[in-house]
């Protein structure tokens, strides 16, 4: 099952990274009222992307810490979907393109699957 989690994690990581690229296009820091603009947004993504990619390595190695990071990544994907759905329902124009919505819905799906597989391996 660890091999399956690796591939699910990889697909979800690709979706999440593409969502973050889309987030830069939509100037997400404004949506969440983050100070610092694009500079802080990009600076924060160095450790975030490191953890996501390192977690994939740890999952591949069968590490317990990889499962913990997998849990964090899957919950992050679910949060991304819920947060952006909230903004969309409030009438915000960001993330309304077909591709943005496809990425968010796919992220939700793979995040739920990743969460289930991760929890199965943890318990």
TrEMBL record:
What superkingdom does the record give? Archaea
Entry keywords, A to Z: Membrane, Transmembrane, Transmembrane helix
Residues spanning the membrane: 38-58, 64-89, 101-122
Is Transmembrane one of the keywords? yes
UniProt name for this protein: HXXEE domain-containing protein
The uppermost taxa in this organism's lineage are:
Archaea, Methanobacteriati, Methanobacteriota, Stenosarchaea group, Methanomicrobia
């Amino acid at each position: 099952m660890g091999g399956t989690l690796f591939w699910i994690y990889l697909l979800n990581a690709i979706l999440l990274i593409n969502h973050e690229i889309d987030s830069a296009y939509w100037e997400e820091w404004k949506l969440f009222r983050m100070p610092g603009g694009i500079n802080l947004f990009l600076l924060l993504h160095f450790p975030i992307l490191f953890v996501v990619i390192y977690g994939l390595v740890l999952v591949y190695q069968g590490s317990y810490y990889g499962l913990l990071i997998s849990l964090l990544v899957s919950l992050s994907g679910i949060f991304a979907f819920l947060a952006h759905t909230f903004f969309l329902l409030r009438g915000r124009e960001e993330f309304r393109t077909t591709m943005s919505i496809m990425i968010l819905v796919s992220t939700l799906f793979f995040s739920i699957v990743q969460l289930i597989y991760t929890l199965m391996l943890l318990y």
